[in-house]
Amino acid sequence: MSLPVSPFSSDGDRHFDGLAEKFAGSLYGGPRGALRLALLDRLLPEMLRLDDQPVLDVGGGLGQLSGWFARRGHAVTLVEPAADMLDHARQALAGQPITFVEASLQALPQRAADPWPLIVCHAVLEWLHDPRAALAILAGHLAPGGQLSLMVFNRDALRMSNVVKGNLEKALDDRLEGTGKRQRLTPISPLTHDQIETWSAENGLTIEAVAGVRVFHDYLRHPPTTEADWTRLVALEQRYCRTEPHWRLGRYLLYTLVRTDTATCSRRS
Ligand SMILES: C[S@@+](CC[C@H](N)C(=O)[O-])C[C@H]1O[C@@H](n2cnc3c(N)ncnc32)[C@H](O)[C@@H]1O
Fold this sequence. Notes:
By secondary structure, this protein is an alpha/beta fold. It has helices at 20-28, 31-47, 64-71, 83-92, 108-111, 131-140, 155-164, 168-172, 193-202, 227-240, 265-268; strands at residues 55-58, 76-79, 98-101, 116-122, 142-153, 205-213, 252-259.
């Protein structure tokens, strides 16, 4: 499939138009995607209060997370700006209680404005030109006491993996972010835990829980080749993903952010 003339939206974000096949194959078709889903399957029920509440999945991509919540009885609204990603999700999730909306996070006020008890936004902020503004928009759509399950690509882990791979000059120059221009899947805005802490506080969000997703896998010199070693690796990832210092170098950082302020709700929505 050919790429659009500019891969960036008018907001400067990297929508995944033309990337559905690549994303499905290179991430979810391989061990990294399988491990991510296995860890989320364990972590989401531990980190979130789940009581069949409606879920808004922002930048839902191919719909893996929407499907996970729908199978557990949640009514899900999946918002995704890339038409071909949304088509894949629609086909994969046919028959499940999911509403599909072709829109960007910035269009939420017009397209999915309700205050939501649970918003999921996984692996999206790092593809945005202004992730700080995006977190404010998400916070503004949370009901008081509502939970945001946020997962972001970890800049510190990106540095570590570049060093491990021998990309020393790149790491020393701190040239870590991708350009977003070709079909590469290196994010344009990898994020740090410090940024999430600061921006959460700015928006009345409290960090209730944090975990690293893939704290070991991406640094392995010898990826597992047997089923038994794969099982051992999954067990290690599960054991240390919420433990200091390991979570800090997870490829992704997974947060439960809770909206604790009520006074500024209407100003932001
Ligand atoms: C790495 S994928 C993650 C998909 C899914 N959340 C997951 O965890 O598998 C990033 C997604 O964010 C979407 N995206 C990019 N810019 C966006 C924006 N401004 N608003 C909402 N989604 C956006 C892309 O089109 C893409 O589907």
